[in-house]
Amino acid sequence: KNTTPATAVLAALLISIFSIHPNVAEEKRQGWKRFLFGPRSKATLKAVVKQPAKLYARDVVAALDANSHETFSGLLMSKMDEAAGAAARGATGLSRFVTVRASEMNFPTQAKAGDSLSLYAKVTRLGSTSLTIEVEAKRRAPGPLRAEQSVTHGTFVFVAMDRWAHPRPLKGGI
Known about the structure:
The protein has 174 residues and is an alpha+beta fold. Helices cover 33% and strands 32% of the residues.
């Protein structure tokens, strides 16, 4: 069958949208436990900072996501913010956060249309109401045996909020 590059990119995009990475599925299962039994304990929160980065999102760069065949940086930053938010929810068991800072964004290389984009996040600091999360975006060019290459990394700071939009303390902030 004849397939155009656009058809292949669309198929890969649909596959990435409708498939959930095991880490994401596990976070959803753990979310129900946290809903029923409350946020994580102080000891568990301290252990989160020592964990390695986890994959929080995987996507295919579509032609519409690119300007002159390279990823639009604003869109990439938005995806990184979403991955950092997922890491914040997964680390604390809380669901309401706001981004208060995105800093140290470096773009050594760019992802191109058709590349697979993976976003890894790691909680690096817990405060009394805030979390600092480092996110790294890596690209993999289409084709077999292609290694992942770092596209960008950044640091995001989130503040936990209560239902009235006031800062909420994290259990066991350090």
